[in-house]
Protein 1
Amino acid sequence: MSAFKELTKGIYDQNPVFKQALGLCPTLAVSNSVENGLGMGLAATFVLVCSNVIISLIRKLVPAKIRIPVYIVVIASFVTIVDYSMNGLFHELHKSLGLFIPLIVVNCIILGRAEAFAGKNNIFLSLLDGIGMGLGFTLALVLLGTIREILGNGSFLGIPVIGASFKPVLIMILPPGAFLSIGFVMGFFNWIENRKSN
Amino acid sequence: MGVEQLFIIAVGAIFINNFVFSQFLGICPYIGVSKQLDSAVGMGAAVVFVMTLASTVTWLINEYLLQPSTKNLFFYIFSLDEPPDLSFLTTIAFILVIAALVQFVEMVIQKSSPALYKALGIFLPLITTNCAILGAALINIKKEFTFIQSIVHGSSAGIGFSIALILMAGIREKLELADIPKSMRGIPIAFIMAGLMAIAFLGFSGLKLGN
Amino acid sequence: MKDVLKIGGILLAITVIAAAALSGVYSVTKPLIEDAKQKEQDAALTVALAGADTSGIYKVENEEYVYYEGFTERERQNLIGYAFITSKYGYSSDIVTMVGVDTAGTIIGIKVLSQQETPGLGTRIAEKAYGETKTWVQKQFEGKTAMGCAVDKDGGSIISITGATISSRAVTNSVVDGYKKFNEFITKK
Amino acid sequence: MEKKLFVSSSPHITDRESVAKIMFTVIAALVPAGIGGVYFFGPKALWVILVSVLASVATEAVIQILMKKPVTVGDGSAILTGILLAFTISVQVPLWIPAVGAFFAIAVGKQVFGGLGFNPMNPALLGRAFLLASWPDYMIRFDLARPRGGHLAGIPINIDGITEATPLNVFRQLRDIYSNTTEFTGVQPDVHQQIDTLTSSYTSIKNLFIGDVGGCIGETSALLLLAGAAFLMYKRYIGWKIPFGYIGTVALLSWIFGGKTDLFSGNILFFVFSGGLILGAFYMATDMVTSPVTFRGRILFGIGCGVITVLIRQVGGYPEGVCYSILLMNLTVPLLDRWNRPKVFGKVKK
Amino acid sequence: MGFLTKRSFSGGIHPPSSKNATKNSAIITCPLPSTVVIPVSQHIGAPSKPIVEVGAAVKTGDLLTEPGGFISVPVHASISGTVKAIEPRPHPLGNDVLSIVIESDEKDEWNSSIGPQKDYLQLDKQEKIRRIRDAGIAGMGGATFPTHVKLSPPGDKPIDTFLLNGAECEPYLTSDHRLMLEQPKKIILGMQIIVSILGAQNAGIGVENNKPDAIKVLRKTIADLGLPYKVYSLPVKYPQGAEKQLIVAVTKRAVPAGGLPMDVGCVVQNVGTAMAVYEAVAEKKPLVERVVTVTGKGVKNPQNVLARIGTPYSALLEFCGGLEDNVGKIIMGGPMMGLAQASLEIPVIKGTSGLLILDEKFSKKPQEITCISCARCVDVCPMKLVPTILAKKVKYNIFDSLEKDNVLDCIECGSCAYVCPSQINLVHYIKYGKHQVMKARKKAG
Ligand SMILES: Cc1cc2nc3c(=O)[nH]c(=O)nc-3n(C[C@H](O)[C@H](O)[C@H](O)COP(=O)(O)O)c2cc1C
Ligand SMILES: Cc1cc2nc3c(=O)[nH]c(=O)nc-3n(C[C@H](O)[C@H](O)[C@H](O)COP(=O)(O)O)c2cc1C
Ligand SMILES: Cc1cc2nc3c(=O)[nH]c(=O)nc-3n(C[C@H](O)[C@H](O)[C@H](O)COP(=O)(O)O)c2cc1C
Ligand SMILES: Cc1cc2nc3c(=O)[nH]c(=O)nc-3n(C[C@H](O)[C@H](O)[C@H](O)CO)c2cc1C
Ligand code: SF4
Ligand code: SF4
Ligand code: SF4
Ligand code: SF4
Ligand code: FES
């Protein structure tokens, strides 16, 4: 697979959220606005890229038996770094993402990539893989965030985009809206795939 | 007051702030293991068990190892001048402890009750990477629950998760016999269903239990 | 056995490296975080005590009561008023507000700190209407005498939100209650 | 002679019932309540019902055309969903509300699952819950400015301005004042007596029974709803297990917990006739698609609905719990059916 | 509703009885057909084997085949004449079955050994059973299970109760009803023989209470003969005549799921079978004719006809005035369980209780739509199954859990499909499901 492929596969073909159904909790929880989605996406991308690189770097040193604990330690360290930095630098955003920053540690995408990719490939490819997957995750969050924020709040990135006569569909920014949006978006992608294969 | 408080925490964690429908924790296993009722019941039982245990252990770790208080064991053992603040290790410590705990539970069950192991065993490894467990542990700390409250919260959250999981599994088994449009089959319809269930669970919002 | 030692060693080494790295990060970010938390606290205070110098706000704290004093100057000069926190159960949650009053008991500013009312109904107490710059509580309370606040349904001048009288009333009554308590304390002192 | 003989498997006769016949009979049974709604709430009620029905039918037809399925709006189920949705919303909503609600009910509540018979939850109630969560400000507007339906048993409470002037909401507010969990600094002479008047006076119960109170378009008149329900029971289109299990449970629990503060003092008639209970118990909990098929399952379903309804009415975030309790119990239907399979003939207990 | 009607079972339906057209018409003997077609298999079990050759001359009652095993009965010539062919011919079950075709010599000469036998009651048990088998008797209630097998229960299943099934719960059919009115004595004497074979202490006849005349006649006959048998008047409800339902209605004993009546000490036989048993034991007369109700809107003169086995439908129908123009469907048996027939050349067999001719309007089935879970099928299933789930699983090809859902207990009574408002032919799906389960069972060994 070409390097370019490694970079782009995460965006659509192997999108972690829509195609692999991974990392669903943060996706649902923080996609109530574009800003939250973006913040979460970038935070996770940072962890993903760093842990991919480090793991790829040390993969030869680590015996198979303790692979997973080591990965977890590496990931957890970066998560803590992101957690504290965001708390200091973007306090408001950190507050609204809440619990889900430390929870990046169990985000199935990250451990998944460590296992499936970084533990087997060189640094360069792992870096690209991390960026690509992170990008895919971020895009998914932003897409859902956009849908939910526009419908549920009439705004995009906090800026009102629909006239005042529009009565926002409040439910879209409530929990049910998260499930419904992701369900329909996934259905839509399936529909596209089905049409393509016909 | 004490017992009433516990009751409020329990009902809150099961119905009002249900992990799946309002906290968004444990969604991956919720979608992944809800295809069949039998495995949903097994998974549910495993989660309740591990979540209770994890709440207990992480609370102790936080209280006696991580928090900068006079109860901190490092403070005693190394007779430090001042209690160390190790709270930046919370995430690492918790996740490692949970992973180890699950391993340990798996071993104990395997040795002591092969039948139970057969029923729960396959679900245990899945649980390690389940954010609901870590989530419960972190919420216990964030809400500054006491030891007993943490245990009650942990087990109730597990029960709430299991209820959501089992209801979903029942419905998904039935949806196997439905004419769902092709593109919506599988995970998409599971999400739609979860959304509709979350709408129904809105009925519990605002339950006024205490005072 | 050797294997176990080796594995344990590697694991320990990695954990120690990680812990060391984290403690570094922690010491760097700790002041930042505290700063941010302070700012957040200040954000409410700057609304409640509009006009006071951001560094001229002091916390007054003792066993049973906490309030803030706001001065226009840093060095405790020119007292413009006090801020206190008050709360009351609304429709489905405790609504917590920070209220600032001047020495005569007129409300300077007010901010809802936390609430979990029905989205679209009770939550509107803390929201800005479309095109407005002030939240509902700010619009309704600023400039009013704290003691005399009451919602229109109860014959007062606070215009309650349609469909959310209960939330509106809870905020209103909590302001009155909070002020009473504050006043009691201040006069005792 | 060689004529073409039909060959098909047995049985060769049926009782000539059809889904369409059942649906249209239920629709017919709802007509009196609909007329009652228009009488009490004015001609706008008719518009709300029409918009809701049209939007349901149109949504169903359009989706079926887009998905290249046979269009089955003729079976009447979409019409019924439309009517029931309209019956559970206030006459004071803008007309796009029933349209959007009906769209959600049919599209997300029914057609994504494959259409008639496959939906796990009650579409009309999903529509209502969706609307309530999305536009609560419209959905709880029940003030008394309308032709008729303005009575609350002549309660002297200053009710004019209350958005949600329905018996259950007024009861909740009065009781909160009574037990001091809410402050009501306005002049309220005798809350104690007001509660009694509301829940036990002859006029109050009579108005509730006839439907002369605030509420949703189709829910207020117990009389007209019961007339239709009696007809449906006679035709055996609805059974007794769900409605009686449901109402019986609500009656019992309301008697126990529905008093002012002490137990065993609630007025049963008040709680049975107010809110959407009669409509919900006879026409919505009984929706066959979303209720259990087994005998014991149906009884437990009714009881479960009753328990949740009273829970929400007494301590919930809403004055009425009918909608959510039915939706929540819908979720348990597969389990109820699975765990309450009839014992096969001749199967010995173990 | 056990507490409303004393003797009954739970579930069941009340289809219109439609029996008025024929219930008052006495049994008329059908003229001899010019040819008869006698399939070698008219019962459940192994087919019998021909012992005659083409061209042979036969008399009425002559043996044509020998049993193909224990669960098998022979067939006999039902007219005298010449064997014209031995070849596969259309059979009521829908497939082609080896059949012996006899061309009538119009003399109807009977085999000379047939005639009243003295002291037949004193014969030993084995001899009675042999005569029953030699007479080729298979149950005439529809299932056509060889009667001699039913009457030889294994030693560990003592039989204390014998029930005669005169329920005739299928709509339209009146053949058993007329038989009870016109031949009560033969029926009761046949019953006496069976009771003597089984050594049962209790014996009774179950009749639906829409046939009060039959109940009266049977009671009188029993009294006249001085026998201790009871006649039970049962509420009208389909499938009152299904044996498990009949047993529970009369004795309150429930045959265990997957079990047989003998598991609760019972044997059930149809009234027609009882009469055939009498004729076999007391007259050595083989089963060569039976009463067939020819009825329905599509036939000109509905009536009860005594027809020789092997009579083609065309001959039978001609005798009943012929078909109306708008015939849509011809059914062997009743409308609930009967089989639609593809041709008029199919013959009457031992299990042909009726021939029902429906007009076109009645024959076309409306389009099946999706199940709306109305639970009507669950409420009526006399076996307490959940037909909708069984049918859905079959429709979506989920067979593995069917057996656990007790699909094999379905008696295929059709009550579920009768009431389904979505016009789903549940029995059809369930039969297919049963088939798959049996196949899987066989594979598993
Ligand atoms: C679903 C629902 C949610 C509600 N949420 C609130 C709320 O958050 N705050 C509130 O004051 N009233 C809420 N209410 C309305 C109250 O029941 C009550 O009708 C209202 O406060 C009266 O206000 P009004 O006097 O402006 O009509 C809610 C009602 C319903 C049905
Ligand atoms: C079947 C049905 C279900 C309903 N469910 C709810 C509900 O869950 N919550 C709610 O606030 N109103 C619900 N409503 C509307 C209320 O019954 C009613 O309009 C109002 O909320 C209380 O009115 P009352 O005081 O007349 O009972 C429902 C109406 C019907 C007909
Ligand atoms: C649904 C159903 C209905 C039946 N109804 C009758 C009936 O009315 N009369 C009858 O003799 N047999 C009826 N049978 C057949 C009986 O179950 C049983 O096989 C028969 O009475 C045994 O007698 P036989 O072997 O003499 O035919 C029915 C079977 C089924 C499955
Ligand atoms: C007795 C009865 C009650 C019904 N109740 C409802 C209802 O509450 N909501 C609804 O959308 N449809 C109802 N329907 C119509 C239909 O069953 C419903 O649209 C299906 O759920 C759609 O698959 C009812 C039908 C009947 C016969
Ligand atoms: S086959 Fe049918 S009609 Fe005939 S006896 Fe049995 S149930 Fe009655
Ligand atoms: S055909 Fe089978 S499933 Fe249907 S009612 Fe009869 S016994 Fe029950
Ligand atoms: S009778 Fe028909 S529609 Fe009703 S539940 Fe049974 S199969 Fe479904
Ligand atoms: S298993 Fe069912 S379908 Fe197959 S032969 Fe037997 S009864 Fe017929
Ligand atoms: S992200 Fe929560 S379980 Fe996967």
Protein 2
Amino acid sequence: MSALIITVGLEAEPFSPEEAAARFRRSAEGAGAIVHFIGLVRDSASSEAVRGLFLQHAPGLTLRTIEKFGIEAAERWHLQRADIIHRIGEVGPGEPIVFVATAAAHRRAAFEGADFLMDHLKSEAPFWKKERRASGDVWIEPRAEDYADKARWT
Amino acid sequence: MSALIITVGLEAEPFSPEEAAARFRRSAEGAGAIVHFIGLVRDSASSEAVRGLFLQHAPGLTLRTIEKFGIEAAERWHLQRADIIHRIGEVGPGEPIVFVATAAAHRRAAFEGADFLMDHLKSEAPFWKKERRASGDVWIEPRAEDYADKARWT
Amino acid sequence: MARLLYYGPLSDLAESGDVALPDAVRDTGALVDWLAAEDAALGEALRSRRVRIIVNDVVATGAHPVTDADEIGFLPPFSGG
Amino acid sequence: MARLLYYGPLSDLAESGDVALPDAVRDTGALVDWLAAEDAALGEALRSRRVRIIVNDVVATGAHPVTDADEIGFLPPFSGG
């Protein structure tokens, strides 16, 4: 299993998930199934308007951690390819914050690989998310569900 | 729950899943999570080269059946939108044969809605698939896994 | 004339089209018996437990009534996506 | 000089940067004690069971050795995607 089939990008600027999807499909020739996940910044928190997010990461460590999850997913589900793009820095409402793509021979592998990657990006990758609310900035902790979701894979 | 949030297309010509994805994202404003599944025609069967597929459907019944699954998924996972595009007729190797998109507030709903729709499209929607192999045409039956996958939802 | 629609592998065995049903054919069981008498191979295929019969787009279970005004589909196992 | 890196909510409490460690600070436990003596609020936050300490990108469990040549990160719970 070569690490070359995993592409990880940390992007400080807005990106187009559809362009990423087109590149991914070209790179996954011969696959029978592709799954994409796109996470978007919602414009409201539980009760309040959100003007955007700020995403802190740990240079080096964040990239290596995500690559490790990518390789784990690729080996576990025999993925043909996996791409992960994650925004860093300031992200505006409605903007894509994360894009995960998996390609495999059959659909269950592609679904489960993408699901696994998202669960690990949510609670096991070194990112710290701050919501820019009207009333001030608030650091966000993973929800209990995020830990529970991740525990499904162990 | 309005049926207007479900779009179903049966396409006799090749389509771009990335263009479908872009339209879908524009229509799903405010969603926090989008999942796409793209099924592609593989160029080989278990042992033999495949020159393409022929997909028969039952006009009217096929569309209504898929719409019913779409509404079921939307209600069960509180989807904001769901789009389903399925090719009919002749489909060439490497071409997208099915596109499913789901949009929801959170990722588990989007993942499970798309997964549910694909499992039902595979074994519960009126399509009949013929592989055009070098040695002749072969009608394909769902695999045992396809029935098992579908049974996960009941 | 009833409209008989054959799908998937069944469409290789018989051609879909309009057929005048004999008076004796008043339900799906009698219909299959009649078609089997005309074409034994088709009859065997239609009698598979796995073939669903739909009458005017409604799944017919057991001996469902049929008339000359109906559209009757024979649906072998589906294989989509 | 050791490099201390504070992430997430911890970055609101202390600024990341290079620090000369006293001779007595030879492991992560002593490091946290020393930082807590300087800033009680920071000390309390760093002592949370949920803060991971990494030394040169390796997760440090227990009293991990530290020297003036190390990069030491304090990582509160992650929230990505």
